[in-house]
Amino acid sequence: MFLRMLTGAISRQKARALTIALAMALGASLATSMLNVMLDVGDKVNQELKAYGANLTVVPRSASIMGDLYGDAGGNRKAEKFLAEDELPKLKTIFWAFNIVDYTPYLDVTASVTGPKGTFDAPVSGVWFDRRFDAPTGEAVETGVIRMKSWWRLEGDWPAEDASQCVVGANLASKLGVVVGDTLNAAAKKSETVTASGIFHSGGDEDDALFAPLAVAQRIAGKPGLVSRIEVSALTTPENELARRAAQNPNSLSRHEWDTWYCTAYISSIAYQIEEVVTGARAKPVLSVAEGEGAILRKTQLLMLLLTVLCLACSALAISNLVTASVMERGAEIGLLEAVGASRFDVSALILAEALVTTLTGGAVGYFAGRVFAQIIGRSVFGSPINSNALVPPLVAVLVTAVTIAGSLPAIRLLMSMKPAETLRG
Amino acid sequence: MDILKLANVSKIYGSVKALYEANMSVAGGEWLAIMGPSGSGKTTMMNIIGCMDRPTSGSVLLDGTDVSGLSAPELTHIRRDKIGLIFQQFHLISYLTAVENVMVAQYYHSMTDEGEALRALARVGLEDRAGHLPRQLSGGEQQRVCIARALINYPKLILADEPTGNLDETNEGIVIDIFRRLHGEGSSIIVVTHDPEVAEVTDRTVFLEHGRIAKTVSNR
């Protein structure tokens, strides 16, 4: 009987039910798209920010201590310590291996570089440009400077990994009088002739340097199989109090806290895991980048949350008006139900059930529309689709229910104040 | 035994005495008419007897229970169990069929039984209209559905407010015949009416004037 009354009441007021469903569909669609984007935006924003540089630097532990003690003045001392190149694939074996988006080793050496305009001392960095290899886990890895320095403007081509080629920073190229295709000679412990396949503009100190494949720099420096440092670009979770405590001293954490920290992609836990696999390494977050990422992420998520709350509040207001109007119009029917023995709770349950059936139907439509909106936002803002999070459907259902109950409260208050004797008389 | 006894019942709104010091009793099986001009207190008395309102003072004994001081949920309970209400405007639920309208009263009383609801409709001669919506029924038929709904839970007292007020002469006759039959079967009935022809078929008529019981006339 309840079901019959429910369906009858809804079908009798089709236009109003449709308006209520539409109000909820709009709210639910915005909530769905915002929640999906919010839950996926961490990775998306991180991916975007990865384009602006590494957020971790891995250096030899002893060099790090010297650097900490002497600052820049310890630079020469740092150069005396190295990491083993053959340990680089191990970065892809840590717990958060899939969060390491890109990385490249650096072998830094100061060399005498000879070009058309003469010979000058200049920093030479041996790096991976476009390195492809299979990690010990079987994962096919493609990484290097080309991916990590996406904002560099390049005239010419990037060097091939196994060729005697290089790219020259714009300032250095100007000093040397080098154009694309010229040959240069770089000499430190050994001398090697390389072809300038390209000239780059970084907008930073790198414009005064020469970048060559790692093997070329190792030959010039006489350091086969060694690297000075590694730049790592990793997807991370914003730091919190636990991460900050762990960064200072992981041993201060309880077992449970340690597990939580280790199994969360904090930059400090990723750094810790890198130190576990690379012998003698010290992984240091580039704090300005890491904190900037966290701040942008938090602000983006707060904005999404506020938008979600705002549009659900609008839905609640619309539902409130429509349900209240419905109760006022149906005063005689409500009075009749009470006259034949329905309690106010019974009548309230009927009104609330009508509203819930209508809004949940609208909410379901809104959910699917919201998934489409999320994809539109993903493609137009981030250039990639937004993953539909499994948390969103139950969350939207709970929100729709809460909004409906909140929106129906004024109508139920009105209903509680109605007297059957008065409403039956009209 | 009296099914209803009013003792010094008053309903006062500010300075307006809608009903004042009313004393009246209705015996079990009696058919009573309440008459009076507009504003005489008929509706107020009907609401108090029908447990849809409470008196300002006095006591209302309904089937032995004093309902004058009961809370709204308690009055709902009493109304559900002891009263069958019939309205001038019928008050049928527009999206339910005739039999479903009868079953609504069953639903809020105990549990629905379609067979019994159909039998109630048969008692008022509407078994063949059970599946019709109110808009598909004439005024007289709608009032008969309303009577079937009032009868379905076997109330101790049937309260009818101007049951023939919206009906033509033919349908008025049909409805009065139904009341006559119910009275014959032992039902206690109170009819509020303006119509002397309705009142004269009852056992007794109570006349109200200015909120007071002016006189009581036996029609037998």
Average pLDDT over all residues of chain B: 89
Distance between the termini of chain B: 19 Å
The fraction of residues assigned to DSSP E strands of chain A is 15-25%
Give the C-level CATH assignment of chain B.
Alpha Beta
CATH overall fold name of chain B: Rossmann fold
Relative helix content of chain A: 40-55%
- Summed up, the helix count of chain B is 7
Low-confidence runs of chain A: 72-79
* Strand arrangement in the largest pleated sheet of chain A: 3-4-11-8-10-9
Q: Beta fraction of the residues of chain B?
A: 25-35%
Rounded to the nearest angstrom, the radius of gyration of chain A is 32 Å
Task: Determine the fraction of residues in helical runs of chain B and give it as a percent range.
Answer: 25-40%
Based on CA atoms alone, the radius of gyration of chain B comes out at: 17 Å
Helix/strand/pairing category of chain A: alpha+beta
Short description:
Chain A has helices spanning 2-12, 14-50, 61-70, 75-78, 145-148, 170-176, 214-221, 241-248, 255-262, 267-277, 287-329, 331-339, 344-382, 392-417, 420-425, and strands at 56-60, 83-84, 100-115, 118-127, 131-134, 140-143, 153-156, 165-169, 183-187, 191-201, 210-213, 226-227, 229-234, 281-285. Chain A has 426 residues and is of the alpha+beta class.
